[in-house]
Amino acid sequence: MTNVRCPSMTTLHRGTNIGSQRVSGPPLLGCRFCANALTAILPVFVLLASLVVSLRAQAIDDGIMVPKHTLFSGNIYSNDSWDHYWEGSLKRVNGNLGSVTTQTNIWSANYGVTDRLNVITTIPYVWTHASQGVLHDMQGFQDIALAVKYSFLDRPFTKYGSLRAIAVASGGIPLTNYTPDFQPLSIGTNSKRISGRSTLNFQSNWGWFLNGSAAYTWRAPVTLDRPYYYTEGHLFLTNEVHMPDVFDYVASAGYLKRGVLAYFSFAQQRTQGGGDIRRQDAPFVSNRVNFSKVGTTVMCPIPKLRNLAILFSYGRIVDGRNVGQSNTYSTGLMYTLHLHGSQIP
Amino acid sequence: MSMPHKQSLRSVAAAMALVSAIAATIPLAAQSTDANAGGWRMIVLTAATQIPVAAPAPVTDAGYQAELASIKTAQVQLTADQQKSIDYWSSGGVMRWNQIMIELVAAADLPPEPNPDGTYPAPDPNNPFAFPQFPFANPPYASRAYSYVSVAQYEALKVAWYYKYLYNRPSPSKVDGGIRALMPATDLPAYPSEDAVVAGVTAQLLKLLFPTAAAQIAQKADEQQQAAMLSGRAAASDIAAGLALGQAVAAVFAARASSDGMKAAAGSPAQWQALADAAVARGEIPWKSQESPPRPPMLPFFGKVKAWMMTPADIVNERPGPPPSTSSTQMAQETAEVKRSVDNVTRDQLAIAYKWNDGASSPTPPGHWNLIAAPYIAQAQLSEVRTARTFALLNMALHDAAVGCWDAKYTYFNPRAVQLDRTIKTIIGLPNFPSYTSGHSTFSAAAAEVLSYLFPSGAAYFDAQKEEAAISRLYAGIHYRSDIEVGKAHGKRIADYTVRFAQQDGADHTESASPGITAAVLDGAGFRPAIAPGSIATVFAANLGSTSTLSTTLPLPTSLSGVSMQFNGSIPAPFFYASPNQANIQIPWELQGLSSATLTVTDARGSSSTLSVPLAAFAPAIFSVNQGTSQGVVTIANSSTLAAPAGSIQGVETRAAARGEFITIYCLGLGAVNNPPATGEATRDSSSTAKSPVSVLLNGAALPSSFAGLSPGFVGLFQVNVQIPDNAPTGNAVTLALGVGGATSNTVTVAIQ
């Protein structure tokens, strides 16, 4: 009988899907180097934000398209921690967890098949740790994600800027058979998933931009190692757990010009079902995880290092349900590689 | 009224072959109905008769007929929801309530959240809805809850079975062809309704154990009774009697629960400190809660809660020896093994640890084992009473395992490995009570032992599950190896108390070392517990011998196949027949006037057991052709022809009796007779007449008998002769009963044209 009641937080969607901006070519960028760096960074950053906590691979909610025959690859490290969490709607702390930290390292690659069609993949490695109590750390490769991104609209809009619309189909598959039944220290939910997303981006000629993106995610049932579980007021005599769908959106506004990016974002996730964490109980894999998150990001090219850029980001969950009130810090390096002699325009 | 006795007696010679066969070798009723369950040994109740159930109105009664009419009406108007409910309860009430209870436990398996000041509130049974809600259904609480409900169901159903075969009222769908049987139909008599018994006893106890679910429980109980009625299985009066019976049994168990030591099981801060101080005084490191803030130990005095099959002395006697000293090399090695194990756990081991986590929001380990047992019970298609017995045996062993394990845990107050080595981390929540011995190991060994006895074909599977459950705790990092090994052995020893009971409670007929402690003594005609001296009785017991033997000489022998029986220590009982599981004897005439006697069964090796047998001056019982059907062994006078519908019984000549004809009713228990023969001796002539007047109730109307007394040439067998009046009702199943000395027999049927 356990008396340790791990508090909440599924690994599900601690990150937000922070919107980013379209970088559209020479008129906007002061140098080719900067353009390369930014176009490489933005999509990966978005990947990070969504995969830190790994559920979906929505890399994908920015307005950027990678040019044809260009590979952008990089690595982003993220540190997410919380001590307060929402048990259902009750905000609390838990002495048997203290502060729960999730570190994530994501390697990503984004390849431009054409200027309008990008293929993106990400591979995260996750470590979890509780600062108090007796629960064991967990670590391992989490879910590989693959996304196909298509820009179906890209044109000037009014005399002030241009508009781009993008559709993304993505999916994720667990790379390892990690347990989803040790929340909040499981490294993920061990659920296959697919998402559909659409993004609309307006970039002004002076550098200001607005971005909006929304997605719907379907998740496959999760298989536990035990023959029963209790959630939503019922005992289920099966090891298979239905996973509710997830809706999320993100809106962002900021400045992007000459390789320097700064913006604020607001994101919300709404899980379309699932139960609350029970009083003084551990979270369950199919809990209804909702949150509102604000964030800010700054990034710029590294001076004198060709094709390399660095980013910093901070995000905080301001309200939630069955989720930790986390602070997330991220940093990463991105590299641009031109294949087949291609050039960024 | 002029039928000569002699002629009547002589003419039945051929029919007597049938009677003899029945009297001498009364077959066990079909496994599916367990007709003798009314005599299976009780656990908490003293006897079935402790719970009185009044005789039902005859099926011809106008009130009963009205009940049947309302069933017919309801069946015509059956709604989809009602049909769904019938389908649901068709799986068996005991099985369904077990599922419901498992869910109630999982819902209530949440520990209290700490107060802001670092203390912990206790769930309050007087204010169950306030946080923390009552109860916290942790493993000891759950084991006790499962056992109370299971044992009470089992006792109540044995009482129900006793009265069912005492009164033999068929189910509505058997009485009235216009009523459909919408649940699987058996020959089980309907009064009192087993479904209502289960609803009554279960709902009453569950409401006490899980008060926040009272509304849901009441609704389920109502649905179950409604389904029994709508399905044609029970009439309103069957249900009312069953409900009252169930509730009366629940009251007995509620009284036991109020004084079984549970109220003191949580203890006080001073008592918790005393446990730690005692460990220090022994030179050991005392257990400490690893929670933050530290949580009081889980039910430290549950080891003092009353067990089912074990006395407090048994609990102490079976207590394992102490764990390795906390300062010993062995403990250091075992602690290191825990760390090594949990830090290097494989994925398969992780799966086993999670499979057997059984932590918060779970049915707990006892519930997990109920889930393992359920498919075996379902597949065996047991009667309701045997289903209840199976869960009762399992849950008694699990409860006693909880008591024994908690006794050991708090006797030794041994720290967890995590406490001795702070670098050890666990992959499931750490249970908040001492380490030695492992609860999972104790529970699982106990459950596997009982289930392997009940379902030998599953023994290898149960054993494998037990081993997996036990070692899972080492993989999880929460138990030392010695907790596990000692716990398994302890659990098995505890379960053996239950298995020994099961071997001798009258329900099983497997080999055991001694002749079965006698399970039940029932009258030879209807399997009813009331027996009159001089009559034929059936004794159900285990291991009466290895062969079946029929007596062929007069006087009847007092030993058969090496088995003998004595009443009150000295009065031998003559045998008609003995088999490994059953003997048919004559209750000695010498016991007349007594209200009870002890029966001692002795086998050739000299081992024996005794049982108290209730006696009655009058215990009229009419033989019927088959258990579970109502055709009486009634012949047409001066013939060997049974007064049954023509051709209705294979190999026996039958026809309906005509008005004006005499019939002969073969029966038992008409009380004292004139010119009684010696015990074991046959009556020589027709002079052994009943001293008290015997009335024949034909279709409810009393008729005088022309003869009532012992049947010449037979031992213990009575017959009653009566003339069928000219105005008698006709039909294939006219009801017939006997009344004597204020007692009424079972009701049989005869065919009259």
N/C terminus separation of chain B: 19 Å
| Silhouette of chain B | elongated
Q: Helical content of chain B, roughly?
A: 25-40%
Quick check: average pLDDT of chain A? 82
Quaternary organization? heterodimer
Spans where pLDDT lies below 50 across 5 or more residues of chain B: 1-18, 20-31, 510-519
Task: Explain what you see.
The complex is a heterodimer of chains A (345) and B (753). By secondary structure, chain A is mainly beta. Chain A is 6% helix and 51% strand. Chain A contains one helix and 19 strands. In chain A, the strands form four sheets. A twelve-stranded antiparallel barrel of chain A has the order 1-4-5-7-8-9-10-15-16-17-18-19. In chain A, strands 2-3 form a two-stranded antiparallel sheet. With 753 residues, chain B is of the alpha+beta class. Chain B contains 20 helices and 20 strands. Chain B has a five-stranded antiparallel beta sheet, with no helix packed on it. In chain B, strands 4, 5, 6, 9 and 10 form a five-stranded antiparallel beta sheet that branches. In chain B, strands 11, 12, 13, 16 and 17 form a five-stranded antiparallel beta sheet that branches. Chain B is elongated and about 95 Å long. In chain B, 57% of the residues are buried. Classes of the chains: A mainly beta (345), B alpha+beta (753). At the A-B interface, strand 12 of A face helix 5, helix 14 and helix 15 of B.
Tag the structure with descriptive keywords.
A: 345 residues; mainly beta; twelve-stranded antiparallel beta barrel; 1 helix; 6% helix; B: alpha+beta; five-stranded antiparallel sheet; elongated; disordered N terminus
Write the layout of secondary structure elements.
The complex is a heterodimer of chains A (345) and B (753).
Chain A: H1 32-51, E1 70-82, E2 85-87, E3 90-92, E4 100-112, E5 117-130, E6 138-141, E7 143-157, E8 161-174, E9 193-204, E10 208-219, E11 222-223, E12 229-231, E13 234-236, E14 240-241, E15 246-257, E16 260-271, E17 290-301, E18 308-321, E19 327-338
Antiparallel strand pairs in A: 1-4, 1-19, 2-3, 4-5, 5-6, 5-7, 7-8, 8-9, 9-10, 10-15, 11-14, 12-13, 15-16, 16-17, 17-18, 18-19
Chain B: H1 5-11, H2 13-24, H3 62-76, H4 80-90, H5 93-108, H6 139-167, H7 172-175, H8 194-209, H9 214-230, H10 236-258, H11 269-281, H12 312-318, H13 329-343, H14 347-355, H15 364-380, H16 384-412, H17 417-420, H18 439-454, H19 459-475, H20 481-503, E1 520-523, E2 536-540, E3 549-550, E4 559-560, E5 563-567, E6 571-572, E7 575-578, E8 582-586, E9 596-602, E10 608-614, E11 621-622, E12 634-636, E13 662-668, E14 694-698, E15 701-704, E16 707-710, E17 718-723, E18 731-740, E19 743-744, E20 748-752
Antiparallel strand pairs in B: 1-2, 2-8, 3-7, 4-5, 5-6, 5-9, 7-8, 9-10, 11-13, 12-13, 13-17, 14-15, 14-18, 16-17, 18-19, 18-20
Helix pairs in contact in B: 4-9, 5-6, 5-8, 5-15, 5-16, 6-8, 6-10, 6-15, 6-16, 8-9, 8-10, 14-19, 15-16, 15-18, 16-18, 16-20, 18-19, 18-20, 19-20
